[in-house]
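Is this the right way to post structure tokens for a design question? Let me know if I should format differently. Anyway, here goes:
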């Protein structure tokens, strides 16, 4: 069964991302053919990148890194929920992406952004990051706007049509997850990195 993680990409107190992720999971629960689970960056207590080698080397010394690597490796694709901080993604999310390399490779990634401009600028930066991680960012995304998709800027209240956007996003992530399974299992690996 295809496993898709809905990633909560912020760690601050009073964050909105978990509520947005629960909404995405609620929509996903109506779909057959894939398992969708919450993967919260905050649950892993990742410090600023502290491994002695670049992630591309794949030599992880920290227990926190190995735990994060095991979690990410267990999924076939990802839907990242991200707010927008100063026209970019939360630092904790970028840090979590940077911790790993091979565990992200050849897997699709989609985005649900939120904020004043629907998280669009954070999502565009994350698309570039994901390409460098040898991921396949899908075309569809969802952009929730603070003024219209949240009640009093604190509770998610998606406008009409947003559920359909999530379905389109999940269609693409799930399709690519199945298509890329043969690449992940076919022995195609990253080039070795000289230390």
């Amino acid at each position: 069964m295809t496993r898709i993680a809905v990633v909560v990409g912020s760690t601050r107190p009073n964050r909105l991302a978990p509520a947005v992720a629960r909404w995405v999971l609620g929509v996903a629960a109506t779909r057959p053919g894939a398992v969708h689970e919450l993967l919260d960056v905050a649950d892993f207590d990742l410090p600023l990148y502290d491994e002695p080698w670049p992630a591309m080397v794949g030599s992880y010394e920290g227990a926190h890194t190995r735990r994060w690597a095991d979690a990410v490796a267990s999924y076939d694709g990802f839907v990242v929920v991200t707010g927008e901080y100063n026209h970019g993604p939360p630092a904790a999310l970028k840090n979590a992406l940077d911790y790993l390399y091979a565990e992200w490779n050849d897997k699709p990634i989609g985005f649900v952004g939120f904020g004043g401009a629907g998280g669009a600028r954070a999502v565009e930066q994350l698309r570039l990051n994901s390409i460098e991680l040898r991921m396949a960012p899908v075309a569809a995304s969802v952009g929730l706007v603070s003024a219209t998709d949240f009640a009093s800027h604190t509770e998610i209240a998606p406008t009409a049509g947003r559920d359909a956007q999530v379905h389109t996003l999940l269609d693409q992530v799930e399709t690519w997850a199945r298509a890329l399974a043969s690449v992940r299992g076919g022995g195609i690996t990253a080039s070795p990195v000289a230390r």
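Format looks fine. Someone answered above. Worth noting: The longest strand covers residues 136-145. The chain has one domain: 2-185.
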